[in-house]
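Please check this:
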Amino acid sequence: MDSALPPLPGAHTIPHATAVLLAGGIGARAGLGMPKQFAELRGRTILEHSLAALHDHAGISGVLVVMAPGYTDAARVVTDGYPRVLDVIEGGRERSDSTVRALSWLSTAAIAGDVLIHDAARPLVSAAIIDRCLGALKASAAVGVAVPSSDTVFRTNAAGRVVDVPPRSSLWRAQTPQGFRLATLRAAYDAALADPDFVATDDCSVVQRYLPDVPVMVVLGEERNLKVTGPLDLEIAERLLTSP
């Protein structure tokens, strides 16, 4: 993990929300020989599709792009022409490291208020999803986007034996963006960074684990808001972009 966050200065409150676009992964499973964020879907990179969705939304005041190490210059080429891009910075080794670096940048820039964290690998995020996430932040300090699970889920032990079958009605598949009061997310990561056993794959889980008194609310996502992980996902995303 990266080093602890600097203290938050007295920051002004922004009118809507700042977006953090996490594009720090190298996308090895996509088998492209380059970060999957630079793969093209209908003439635009995955990175640009995701960036445009955030940048062009009226409720987003600025977008901070967190890019895979060694690819910040290439990302700046993509972000050229998007005036509400605040900066392109280098991400960390793990996804949570990239969030920590984003929080540090926002602290240095004296930005407070609400923040949306979105994975660049979800290029089909809609304005309606962003609307729901921003709307929920009016009453909640932490918000996750998710869709109900249509599959039965097994929980197994190390030997592969099923030990539990949770009721499907209580299971949701997490998506992004995830929204937070910036001070809430900072407090959760401050606590997480003090834990030598800290591991996380998303930011809602950090709040849920380290700030258990802060409820994480869920708003409805969309099946179209898929995460591009492998070649098949690229094909599906390409087809979805051609459909209304």
Observations:
- Residues 163 and 170 are 17 Å apart (CA to CA).
- Residues 13-242 form a domain with the Spore Coat Polysaccharide Biosynthesis Protein SpsA; Chain A fold (CATH 3.90.550.10).
- The two ends are 42 Å apart (CA to CA).
